[in-house]
Amino acid sequence: xxxxxxxxxxxxxxxxxxxxxxxxxxxxxxxxxxxxxxxxxxxxxxxxxxxxxxxxxxxxxxxxxxxxxxxxxxxxxxxxxxxxxxxxxxxxxxxxxxxxxxxxxxxxxxxxxxxxxxxxxxxxxxxxxxxxxxxxxxxxxxxxxxxxxxxxxxxxxxxxxxxxxxxxxxxxxxxxxxxxxxxxxxxxxxxxxxxxxxxxxxxxxxxxxxx
Length: 211
Prior knowledge:
It contains six helices and five strands, in the order αααβαβαβαββ. By secondary structure, it is mainly alpha-helical. The mean pLDDT is 79.
C-alpha cells in the first residue's frame, strides 16, 4: 500500500509540475510576443522621429517667417497665434522621441537632474498649468546625477509623471507632483490617492493599469 500511495503521489506531483511548466511556458511565449511587438513599435517610432526631424526645421522657419505678416495684420494675427501655440504644444510632446533616438548608441551616459527637469518642464508645464497642478522640482533633484540609458530613463519619467498627473487630477487636496532625490536615487511623489495595497505587487508588471 505504501508503494502504491507513493506512486500515486509521485504521479500527482509529476502532473502538477507538468501543468505548471506548461503554464509558465505559455506565459513566456506571450511575453516574448509582447516584447517583439514593442521592439517593432520602437523601430517605427524611430523612423517617425527621423522623418519628423527632417521636416520640422522647415515648419519652424515657416512659422517664424509668417510672424511679421501676422503682426501687421490684426485679422491674421489670431490665426498665426493658433498655429504657433498648436505647433508648440505638439512639438513639446514630440520632444519625447529625442532621447529615444539616442538608443542606437546603447551607451550609458551621465544623466543629470538638471537635464531631466528641463525635459520634463518642456513636456508637462502646459498640461500642469491647464489642470492647476503644481510641478515642484527640488534642488536635490536638479543636483542629483546617475548613469544609464537616456532611452530608458527619460521615457520612464514621462510615463510615471503622466500617470501621477492622471491621479492627482482626482485629488481633493492641493494638486502637486514633486520631483526630489536622496543620496541614492530620484524620487517622484504626488498628492493623489496613492497605490492600493492589492496593486503593490503588480504595479510594475508590463501592461498593468487601473486607468
